[in-house]
Structure formats: C-alpha cells, structure tokens
Amino acid sequence: MANGRLPTYFGIISLEKIKKRNNMKKTLLCIAFSILGVYSYGQRRPLHKAVPFKDANAAKAYLQNQADSLKFSGNVLVMQNGKDLIKESYGLASKEKNIPINIDTKINLGSINKAFTAVCVLQLIEAGKINFEDKITKYIPELKANMANEISIRNLLEMKSGLGSYWDSPIFLDNYKNLRNLEDYVPIIAAYSLSSKPGTERQYSNSSYELLGILVQRVSGQNYYDYVRENVYKKAGMVNTDAFERDKSVQNLAQGYSKFKVGEDFETQLPPERQYAFNYNVNDRSPVKGTAAGGGFSTVDDMKQFVYTLTSNQLLSKTSTDLLINHFRDSPDRNPVYNIRGGSTGINSVVFYNASKDLLIIVLCNYDPPVGSEVARRLIATFNS
Q1: CATH fourth-level superfamily of 15-383
Q2: Which class for 99: exposed (0-12), middle (13-18), buried (19 or more C-beta within 10 A)?
C-alpha cells in the first residue's frame, strides 16, 4: 500500500487508526483474510504452546464448556482415515433470534475464499487462456500503467505484487455496503500506487486476489461467482457454499459476533468483563457480499469436500495442485500439510489437512480471532502429534 505496512492479525487492518489519521468517517471495518497462516495479535506476541487434549471426548467436553460459558461458537470437524472423531456444533447462529448453530450452518470463511480463487486462476492457466507471466494490464487496462505493466499473474498469486489492501480508500469507505460486483473494486484498487517492486517482497494483499477474481471473469467470459460455482463448488460437491448477500434472507446463515464495538479494533484494550463478551453483531461492518479475496460462507462438510477433491487432483493437475498447496513457493515435493485460514471481527475459520496421516481438522467459528484458531491449535496438537 502507498502508506506502508499496517498492524495486522491474520491480515486484519486496523482501519480506525487510518481513518482518524485521514479524517475519514468513523466506521470500524476490521476486514481480514489470511491464506499464509500468519499468527499475530496486536504487537505480534509469540503464541504459547498449544496444550493437547487427552482424547476426543475430552476435547468435546472442553468445547461444550466453552460454548456454555459463551467463549466459543461454531462447528468443529476432526476426521481421520474416513472416520469422524469429532463432528459437533456449538453456540448460536443468531443471538438476536436465539437460533442454534447446526452442522449445516453456513459460517463465514474469511480469507479461505482466496484458495477457491487460486484454483480458478490455475484452471485458466492449464487451459492455456492465460500465463503466469502475463501482465495484469493485459486484462485490466484501467489500472495505472506503471502499476499493471510490472505486475504479473504470478506476482498476484504469490502476494508479491507490491499491492496491499484498499480498506482506507475513501471510495471503499463510502460505498462498501453496496459493493456486490468485483468490477466495483477496479477504480478502488486503481487509485493506489505500488509500495514495493513486484516480485521482490511478499506482502499480504487482498487487492491482489480481488484483481485475480476480476481476471477470472474477464478471461472466462463468466461472472466470477458463476465461474467458481461451476468449476469449484459443483465439481467438489459443495452444496452450501457461496458469497451470500447478507442483507438478503439466506437459510441457516450464521451471523458473526465480536467483543469490539464500532470504533474499537484488535488493539483496543478491553476490561476483563469484556474479554469474552462476543455481543456485537458485525453483519454491517464489511462489504455486503463476499469477494474473490474472502467473505464467503461454507460448512464443515463442504470444506471437507473441497480438501479431498483438491488434494486428489480432481480440480487441477497434480503439478498445479502441488503449487497451490505449497502456497506458490518453489518445492520439488508437495507439502503433506495443507493449512488455510481466515479471520476478522466475528470470523475465525481454520482448515488443516495432513495427507500423510489422512487427518482433517476444520473449525468454523463466528467469534473474533483467536477463538477458533486456538481451538484448532489444540486439536492439531492432540491428533497430529
């Protein structure tokens, strides 16, 4: 981004501080997504060692206790060798209506949507419609020439584009509740300059994945949302996954809940009585519809389908699948562990798969980070040891 690095948690941008500095309207938008697995909070404090549970029953008892004390809400799946070790629902999908979460409840994925977008791009590369080294200006000429002429598709996938995110854009802040089409993001991103030379520095970038989504729809000739439904969700058998519009009635869709009020962020020091008071509905704090960079909804069963379909090379060739699972880092072998996650106010989702042990752990949580990620870490420590 033009104004340099920003404090992040799973890619979460502290917008309140940016807006105060720029005298913009004071609406808190802590929007975040992460596919890179960065753990940080506030000043990036080190994580404590995750304490394993004695067994699956102990884990379920702990989760129920956390839910009963309003410290956890969401769905949890632990599966190994085709057997469900844990498959449980906790908490409420709607606190306002007292609707409990069930195993088919659709919960916000945050940045996990980036994985779907990457699959779409790699499919188009395999089809010969685009190339890794193509410059993005070839497909999105509206971008500044000095920006787009340097950024390749590879740079965008690797998050080495030199672009950050657009959350402090006045255009975005004034219109985020009405953004329903990816093309709406073009003028927002086009207003920025590069913060580093493309290809030289890995910088977390939501803007990069919005551009990849726009690329998908311009090259394929289909709306991005239609393309991903047909070429990812349908092929993987994902029947409850989409970028639902949250201002419309959607059956069994979870609301997200935060302990932070509007005007507060993840660096706000809260009193002890509010540390687990996830009482604030965040439905209107982010764009009304998910994008290519994040914000879509899914279920634990759908995410299971995605992982198994992807890792068995049914969505992409083995070569492309290896590249995706290795997060576009050069490696002669596929990493046996595939780990993707997303987090923001009222969102904390984790998908962990160790192919060498056929161990799948999915936590979809509708509370702030690190609630879901802490549960996932303990489950990983228990079953992946």
Answers
A1: DD-peptidase/beta-lactamase superfamily (3.40.710.10)
A2: middle
